[in-house]
Design brief:
The chain has 259 residues and is an alpha/beta fold. The chain has helices spanning 17-37, 56-64, 75-84, 103-109, 119-132, 158-164, 186-206, 224-229, 239-242; strands at 46-49, 69-72, 91-94, 112-116, 136-141, 171-177, 215-217, 234-237. It has a domain at 72-238: TIM Barrel, CATH 3.20.20.10. It has a six-stranded parallel beta sheet. The chain has a two-stranded parallel ribbon with strand order 1-8. Helix 4 (103-109) crosses helix 5 (119-132).
Length: 259
């Protein structure tokens, strides 16, 4: 897996309200342009800003600029931020791998969980949610790139896994999430997105109740326009809004899904 370099000139660091407003507007404009290229309504694409590694003081500025939904990869980091920023009106989306011993935290405060990839995690999360009397929107993570270092169910196992999830009534399946090849080559990236869309469409034909709204969470700062052209309904964008990260993306594999 090759990792394209992202630097400050490509993704400048946002530190002021004006920075966040400008950079979020630029992302939204590119979302709209990508949607227009394939005759889609830009409103059909949800922008999920990803705040992993971003300190709390800059998140406060981002929220003041209008961001109200934030994605985090690592549950421990998300939990710390949730408590530190409890005075803010923010919905927290967990988009990285979940260990069962962190299910309590996710069940307590997450607005959605986008990386469900095993029955063991489903059972742990369902048990915690049942105790709290709440349900949680979830996305099933699918490994469309067939890379062993990535989490996610294999595409050929997705239908059976969705059927297993019927046993967990507190998990509200919304659709699928994937990570494409982390590459600058569109010919490697695009097929990952096309594969997830085709899988979603096939399951809709076989048993539409399994896939909920049929959402497709795919696309990051470097490839979200390709993802939209292939049908993404949620793009997870961090660096293009917050700025280039000092921590390399490889830090989030294999112990966490990327942005």
């Amino acid at each position: 897996m090759t990792s394209p370099a992202h630097n400050e000139s490509e993704f400048p660091t946002a530190t002021t309200v004006e920075d966040f407003v400008r950079q979020t507007a630029a992302v939204n404009a590119r979302i709209a342009a990508a949607a227009a290229r394939v005759d889609r309504d830009p409103a059909s694409v949800r922008l999920l800003p990803v705040s992993k590694t971003v300190p709390e003081d800059r998140i406060r500025v981002a929220v003041a600029a209008g961001l109200r939904e934030l994605g985090e990869n690592k549950v421990q980091e998300a939990t710390r931020k949730y408590h530190a920023l409890a005075d803010l009106d923010v919905r927290w989306s967990i988009i990285g791998h979940l260990q069962t011993n962190k299910a309590r935290d996710v069940a307590a405060y997450a607005s959605e969980f986008q990386a469900l990839d095993s029955a063991k995690v489903a059972a742990a999360l369902d048990r915690r949610l049942q105790a709290l009397g709440r349900s949680l929107p979830v996305f099933v993570q699918v490994n469309t790139s067939a890379e062993p270092q990535k989490y996610g169910v294999q595409p050929e196992d997705a239908l059976a896994f969705l059927r297993e999830l019927r046993a967990y009534s507190s998990l509200d399946v919304q659709g699928f999430m994937t990570l494409a090849f982390f590459s600058d080559d569109p010919d490697r990236v695009r097929p990952c997105f096309a594969k997830l869309r085709a899988l979603r469409d096939q399951i809709r034909d076989d048993d539409p109740d399994l896939i909920g709204a049929g959402e497709l969470s795919m696309g990051m700062s470097g490839d979200y326009e390709l993802a939209i052209e292939e049908g993404s309904t949620v793009v997870r964008v961090g660096q293009a809004i917050f700025g280039a990260r000092a921590t390399p993306d490889s830090f989030y594999w294999p112990t966490g899904s990327d942005e």
